[in-house]
């Protein structure tokens, strides 16, 4: 923690003059205002003698004159969202954990530069964007306050996309220009002797994974004295000056290698999702057809059953009420036979003789 951010009341919570609420133990509890011996002033909430809740702490000592913190406290420490204004006029707006910048936050520098992104233990760490006052900016990964990993550095009319290490461009990358072309190449060390002492990316990643497994990254663990703390992954070794060795000049390729890989994975995922959805739709359609066929079969069987019951009772059955049922009364059979005999009698003799011969 920076000296400017440390409050006198952290070490001596009962010092100075206090006007405000107290609890049964005469501790500062509730709303109150404290004037400390070094003339620092805190105005806000207390709980059991410590700052807790929303409050404003104004620094008056020579080293941090005009600095102030406006935000949330938890048991005497900055915790949650808060804004800290530094003596030089720069300010931080974002999340705090245990008196340190942690999580998402934005830092406005007095020279006009702005950083917006992730923080860990008071340092820029994770993904973030640093915009310079002249308009150039770095967008990418950070490790313990430095450019580390994949990132992009944007100039006024072109940008560099590639890997960074120790706040320098290092390894393979490319310059992408506004005139629809890009220059591929790599940044190498000016001093070739330093290369032998550097780990390659695979070795570095393996060590980071081992460190995460042994100690945990972003997780609580107990140190030698039994106190809970947090660990960050180790930083790669520092490197010296680098220079760019140009390679092939090609047409504009709108995506970086990481973006290409991400797009490929997204396409595969979408294709898989479409296949699964088609299979589910086909199964639903087959199940619907099966249910419809079973319903039709049941309806026919039920109609036949009802017809048989009605015929067994000797009731007259209307043909319109009993479709698809080919049942005839005996009288119908006799009538049909008589009609057939009459038709044969009306036939010419030649046709009748031919039928008898057959």
TrEMBL record:
Keyword Repeat carried by entry: yes
InterPro entries, alphabetized: MORN (IPR003409)
Gene3D superfamilies: Histone H3 K4-specific methyltransferase SET7/9 N-terminal domain (2.20.110.10)
A Pfam family per the record: MORN
Region (Disordered): 1-30, 322-358
Biased composition (Basic and acidic residues): 19-29
SMART domains: MORN
Keyword vocabulary terms for this entry: Coiled coil, Repeat
Coiled-coil region list: 269-301
Keyword Phosphoprotein: no
Compositionally biased residues, Acidic residues: 1-12
Name of the protein in question: Radial spoke head 1 homolog
């Amino acid at each position: 923690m920076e000296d400017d951010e440390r409050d006198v009341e952290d070490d001596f919570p009962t010092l100075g003059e206090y006007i405000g609420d107290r609890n049964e133990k005469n501790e500062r509890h509730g709303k109150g205002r404290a004037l400390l011996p070094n003339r620092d002033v805190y105005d806000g909430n207390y709980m059991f003698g410590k700052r807790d809740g929303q409050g404003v702490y104004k620094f008056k000592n020579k080293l941090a004159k005009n600095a102030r913190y406006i935000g949330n406290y938890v048991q005497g420490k900055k915790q949650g969202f808060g804004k800290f204004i530094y003596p030089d006029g720069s300010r931080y707006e974002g999340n705090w954990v245990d008196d340190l910048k942690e999580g998402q936050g934005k830092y406005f520098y007095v020279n006009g530069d702005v950083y917006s992104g992730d923080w860990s233990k008071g340092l820029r760490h994770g993904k973030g964007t640093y915009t310079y006052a002249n308009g150039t900016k770095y967008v990418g990964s950070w490790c313990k306050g430095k450019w580390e990993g994949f990132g992009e550095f944007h100039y006024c009319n072109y940008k560099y996309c590639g890997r960074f290490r120790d706040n320098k461009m290092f390894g393979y990358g490319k310059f992408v220009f506004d005139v629809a072309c890009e220059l591929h190449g790599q940044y190498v060390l000016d001093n070739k002797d330093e290369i032998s002492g550097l780990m390659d990316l695979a070795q570095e990643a393996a060590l980071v994974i081992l460190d995460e497994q042994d100690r945990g990254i972003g997780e609580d663990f107990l140190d030698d004295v039994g106190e809970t703390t947090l660990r960050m992954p180790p930083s790669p070794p520092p490197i010296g000056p680098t220079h760019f060795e140009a390679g092939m000049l090609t047409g504009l390729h709108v995506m970086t290698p990481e973006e290409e890989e991400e797009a490929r994975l997204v396409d595969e995922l979408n294709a898989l999702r479409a296949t699964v959805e088609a299979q589910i739709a086909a199964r639903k359609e087959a199940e619907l057809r099966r249910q419809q066929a079973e319903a039709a079969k049941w309806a026919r069987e039920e109609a036949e059953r009802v017809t048989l019951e009605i015929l067994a009772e000797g009731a007259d059955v209307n043909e319109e009420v009993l479709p698809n049922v080919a049942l005839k009364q005996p009288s119908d059979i006799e009538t049909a036979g008589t009609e057939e005999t009459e038709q044969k009698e009306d036939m010419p003799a030649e046709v009748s003789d031919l039928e008898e011969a057959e």
